[in-house]
Amino acid sequence: MFKYNYYQIDNVDSKQELNRIISKKVASLYNIQADEVLTKVTEREKLGSVQIGDNFDLPHIEYDGQMQGIILVNYKINYYYATSLFIILNVVYLDKDLEKFLGGILNDAGLDKLRNCRNTADLQKIVEE
Q1: What is the spatial distance between Cα 10 and Cα 29, in angstroms, rounded to a whole number?
Q2: In whole angstroms, what is the distance from residue 2 CA to residue 6 CA?
Q3: d(CA 41, CA 33)
Q4: Domain formed by 3-128, architecture
Q5: pLDDT tens digits for 42-97?
Q6: φ, ψ at 89 (rounded to 5°)
Q7: Which end of the chain is less packed: N or C, by CB atoms within 10 Å?
Q8: Which helix (H) or strand (E) covers residue 45, if one does?
Q9: Cβ-Cβ contacts under 8 Å for 52 (sequence gap 6 or more)
Q10: To 5 degrees, how large is the angle CA 54–CA 42–CA 46?
Q11: InterPro entries this protein is in (predicted)?
């Protein structure tokens, strides 16, 4: 089973600030250096947009560790609300439960469920569906 975490951030000034905050969370949860996480997120965004819906981003961090998972973040930035689903994965040894979850959630109905999460218990219900 993969890890899942939820964070509500009431106000960030920029996407870069959000990425710095979440990089620190990823570092503590997955034993990856925060600066390495931030570099991976930034490099991925340079390749092209990670936006997959209205105010919904799907940044991901590929690494060679065994622990894999998601961090769902609902946040307020510049007077609007947005959601990011950070995915931490090993593409060589992709967790089958994570793959199944992503396959079932990355559609309009699934994104709406994630947008409406308000706590870890809500996220747990979605993961266990």
Answers
A1: 21
A2: 14
A3: 13
A4: 3-Layer(aba) Sandwich (3.40)
A5: 998 888 888 898 899 999 999 999 999 999 999 999 889 999 999 999 989 999 99
A6: -145, 160
A7: C
A8: helix 34-47
A9: 58, 106, 111
A10: 75
A11: PTrfase/Anion_transptr, PTS_EIIA_type-2_dom
